[in-house]
Backbone:
């Protein structure tokens, strides 16, 4: 039986705003982190940038820095803000809270092999795949915002754009004001 392409879900991905850890070049991982004054301004600008868009929901990682970004950007707008642990950054395990340079030196070793006491980037992909699988049918033909982390974006790039995971992990993360993805729902 041939499957036909069905409706889609527009996913606007945004990273959490700048944290005090980001400013000190610390890799937070599964630590909550807090927005810096610059980060709070960026979150406010995110809300202003997305103000005219009709959004069905905002999904955010449950880590403090992403929750704070979502609250500042979208709180009071009447859009549901839903926290989901599957949108978290990679769990660097013993390397949570270490200098970014230490993490970057070891990153390629953990595409498929978990960090000590943590997880691998392929496990992040599995979490995000589970999240995406739970979206239809509720959000078919809707636009949602997802606020997450660099590993969340890499998982979306891998799952929705087909970019090989090692290529993503090896590259540098470059911030921009949002990315748009389309999740096609097969029927």
Residues:
């Amino acid at each position: 039986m041939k499957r036909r392409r069905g409706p889609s879900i527009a996913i606007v991905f945004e990273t959490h705003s700048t944290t005090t850890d980001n400013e000190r070049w610390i890799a937070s991982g599964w630590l909550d982190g807090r927005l810096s004054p610059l980060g709070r301004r960026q979150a406010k600008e995110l809300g202003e940038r997305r103000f005219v868009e009709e959004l069905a929901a905002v999904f955010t990682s449950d880590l403090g820095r992403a929750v704070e970004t979502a609250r500042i950007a979208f709180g009071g707008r009447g859009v549901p803000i839903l926290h989901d642990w599957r949108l978290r950054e990679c769990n660097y395990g013993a390397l949570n809270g270490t200098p970014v340079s230490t993490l970057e030196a070891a990153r390629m070793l953990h595409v498929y092999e978990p960090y000590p006491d943590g997880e691998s980037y392929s496990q992040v992909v599995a979490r995000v795949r589970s999240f995406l699988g739970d979206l239809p049918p509720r959000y078919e033909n809707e636009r949602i915002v997802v606020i997450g982390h660099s590993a969340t974006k890499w998982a979306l790039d891998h799952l929705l754009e087909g970019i090989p995971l090692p290529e993503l992990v090896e590259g540098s993360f470059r911030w921009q004001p949002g990315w748009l993805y389309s999740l096609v729902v097969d029927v």
In short: The mean pLDDT is 94. DSSP finds seven helices and seven strands in the chain. The first helix runs from residue 20 to 23.
